[in-house]
Specification:
The protein contains 4 helices and 6 strands; from the N terminus they run H-H-H-E-E-H-E-E-E-E. It is α+β, with helices and mostly antiparallel strands and about 130 residues long. It has a single domain, classed as Nuclear Transport Factor 2, Chain: A. Strands 2-1-6-5-4-3 form a 6-stranded mixed β-sheet. The longest helix has 26 residues. The protein starts with a helix and ends with a strand.
């Protein structure tokens, strides 16, 4: 009986870890839609990352808040890829909620994006973006 219990535990323990890794990879894919779409001026790719009601907020002289898809859709035009480096600094997951820090580095400045994501109808989507320019 003892060996049966050990075998059972050995078979069941990896599953939550694998599920967490799979969720991490799914979120990473969504974040890369945003990063690659932005880098390549490809709105169709970028919009796969965002929930339709996703909002973006930043502080300039005052707080600015806009719908993410409306903002990018009205400003993004096809063209050559942007000269920038992108990086996902971290991803935190808790159930059907997650957050991530992204860095987008240009020659003279960097954007730092903090993304909030939710798993909506089985798919991870960015629901909020708070960002700053450094």
């Amino acid at each position: 009986m003892k060996s049966l219990t050990i075998i059972f535990l050995a078979l069941t323990i990896p599953f939550p870890i694998q599920a967490q890794e799979s969720e991490y990879e799914n979120i990473e894919t969504v974040l890369n839609y945003y990063l690659e779409g932005g880098t390549n001026n490809d709105f169709e790719t970028l919009k796969k990352a965002f929930h339709e009601n996703a909002m973006m907020k930043a502080m300039y002289d005052e707080m600015v808040e806009v719908n993410a898809l409306e903002f990018f859709g009205s400003r993004m035009e096809p063209g050559p890829a942007q000269d920038r480096k992108t990086r996902i600094s971290y991803i935190n997951i808790a159930g059907n909620a997650a957050n991530a820090r992204l860095e987008i580095e240009y020659a003279d400045f960097m954007f730092v994006d903090y993304m909030s994501l939710l798993k909506v109808e089985g798919e991870w989507k960015i629901v909020s973006k708070v960002f700053t320019r450094i």
